[in-house]
Design a protein that fits this description.
six-stranded mixed β-sheet; seven-stranded mixed β-sheet; alpha/beta; 13 strands; 6 helices
């Protein structure tokens, strides 16, 4: 059956209202492509999310209402990127997953925070997997893609597509792509990463292509410089056999250190 994925790469300013109007414009531009799923990047609301956290959190319902209306009009799932939200114990960076009927399917909170983010945000504590058009997908916000355990857990729970809303500077785009390629190859999944266009872009859709025997290469569709939209047709269901084979080859008994939360190992000399 496949799934048509659209990635939006917006310019971001320090004006929330301007950024919100721009997102609405870009969603309207992507609508004629009839996507099944659209993802926005992390921190598209403001170019300085830490400084504007209070303002952004207060606009959560407004943003959700607008994204819900757009989802209904497009009959598509919208992954709202990384939004600043306030929960009972403080601020969090979280991605709403909005269904085609406008309802919120759920939230994925950012788990791994950058150093500066740790001063303000609380980290997420759980990993979610969603489903649309018989395709299961997970959402990882920015730095979460650098930790292979999250993608592996998602794959074990049935995820076939990894959505990665990010906020990457130019110097980090190539390593970001490397992480995404690795997650695809490790788990036999497809991926879509959305980045803002401020100093960098590099938004990308990744598929796996068989080149012989059991060897796969990553096929990429990278956004052009500047504000951009990319759309790709993915058929992650074709990877279900290879993915099950890969996951069945694991040897969990060897990886016990990964689940021993009380143990910290340091390598090297003191």
């Amino acid at each position: 059956m496949g799934i048509r994925v659209a990635v939006i790469q917006p310019k971001t300013t320090n004006n929330f209202t301007k950024n919100l109007e721009n997102i609405k414009t870009l969603l309207n531009k992507v609508s004629p492509h009839e996507p099944d799923l659209v993802t926005l990047p992390e921190a598209w609301q403001h170019s300085n999310t830490l400084a504007a956290a209070n303002q952004l959190a207060e606009q959560e319902n407004l943003v959700l209402d607008i994204l819900a209306k757009q989802a209904q009009e497009m009959n598509a799932v919208i992954v709202g990127g990384g939004l600043v939200v306030h929960r009972g114990d403080g601020f969090r960076m979280a991605a709403p997953v909005i269904a085609p009927d406008g309802s919120v399917m759920g939230w994925q909170e950012k788990i791994h925070l950058h150093k500066s983010e740790q001063l303000l945000f609380k980290r997420g504590e759980s990993i979610q997997v969603f489903k649309h058009k018989d395709i299961c997908f997970g959402v990882q916000i920015c730095l979460d893609i650098a930790f292979p355990e999250i993608s592996r857990i998602m794959a074990l729970r049935g995820a076939e597509l990894i959505i990665n809303p990010s906020h990457m500077p130019s110097r980090a785009v190539e390593p970001w792509h490397d992480y995404m390629r690795a997650r695809c190859l490790e788990n036999r999944v497809t991926a879509a990463g959305a980045n803002v266009w401020t100093l960098a872009g590099g938004s990308v859709i990744m598929d796996l292509v068989k080149v012989g025997g059991t060897i796969y290469h990553v096929k990429e569709h990278v956004a052009q410089d500047g504000e951009a939209i990319i759309v790709g047709e993915l058929e992650p269901e074709k990877l279900r056999g290879p993915r099950l084979e890969r996951l069945a080859s694991r040897i969990p008994s060897i990886y016990s250190e990964l689940v021993d939360r009380g143990q910290t190992i340091f390598y090297g000399t003191e």
